[in-house]
Write a structure and sequence with these properties.
This protein has about 260 residues and is of the alpha+beta class. A hairpin with a 2-residue loop joins strand 6 and strand 7.
């Protein structure tokens, strides 16, 4: 399988941080309770992907615009993480804090474990406006009749390629005000300098409630092996060193299929 066909739901730049010095890691199958391939070491590019997961077709022509859009976000976030990891005196601008939180929302809708949530949103939609879309008549330039809109919506709901597109737009739909807030959400990047085995799962976001709106729910996200991105409602928080061990345990528990580990 060529690398171009591998569409990673966790970006390669991100999972590369969770490797051994040689650039690889072990993969634990949480359902079988065994290490994949009898403890073989894997490189990040070979894990956490779906075969053509973001490829859509216009007629008979394949398009990678969804994958390209995700890659654009990945590149922006990669630069922010570099800023945080390459200097002990790092400082982030307001828009960079925002982008990190938006990235977590992107990951939420991108990972396979939330596929049913994507399908649920599609199934419950009642108009094109639920996807920030409008249908116009090409001749009159006016909006079409409701029955025409509903007929198109029915076709879109049944189209697997549209399901892939919805993954891309749901972050903006479910978090529309994030880039217009005058006061950003409270967020902290908590450093844990002590070394534990590196660990990342295919379902890496730990929400406080899970039932709350994605733009208000507090969360913990492993930004790097030693840094946690924490969104919180209190102005300031105190994080004890043992929290990192608890986060790793929760990461193992809520993994969908696989966990990459260095030990």
């Amino acid at each position: 399988m060529s690398a171009a066909k591998r569409h990673h739901f966790l970006p390669v730049f991100f999972i590369k941080q969770f490797t051994l010095p040689e650039g690889n890691f072990y993969v634990f199958d949480v359902k079988k309770r065994l290490f994949k391939n009898h403890g073989k070491l894997f490189f990040p590019a070979t894990q956490f992907y779906e075969h053509h997961g973001n490829t859509v077709f216009f007629g008979t022509e394949p398009s990678q615009f969804i994958e390209d859009s995700f890659s654009n976000y990945d590149s922006k976030v990669a630069e922010i993480i570099k800023k945080v990891t390459r200097s002990s005196n790092w400082q982030l601008q307001s828009d960079e804090w925002t982008m990190l939180q938006y990235f977590v929302n992107i990951v939420h809708w991108r990972i396979p474990s939330n596929k049913l949530k994507v399908l649920g949103y599609i199934d419950e939609s009642v108009s094109l406006s639920d996807f920030r879309l409008k249908l116009f008549d090409s001749r009159t330039k006016g909006e079409v009749e409701i029955d025409q809109e509903l007929e198109l919506l029915k076709k879109m709901k049944a189209d697997p390629d549209f399901h892939k597109y919805v993954k891309l737009i749901l972050p903006a739909i479910t978090y529309p005000e994030i880039f217009t807030k005058e006061v950003q959400d409270n967020a902290t990047i908590q450093d844990f300098p002590f070394q534990l085995p590196k660990l990342i799962s295919d379902n890496p976001i730990i929400y406080r409630k899970g039932t709350e709106s994605l733009h208000t729910d507090e969360f913990i996200f492993p930004l790097t092996p030693t840094k946690l991105l924490i969104r919180h409602k209190a102005k300031k928080i105190r994080v004890w060193s043992w929290v990192k061990i608890l986060v790793d345990m929760l990461t193992l528990v809520q993994a969908d299929c696989y966990v990459a580990v260095t030990d």
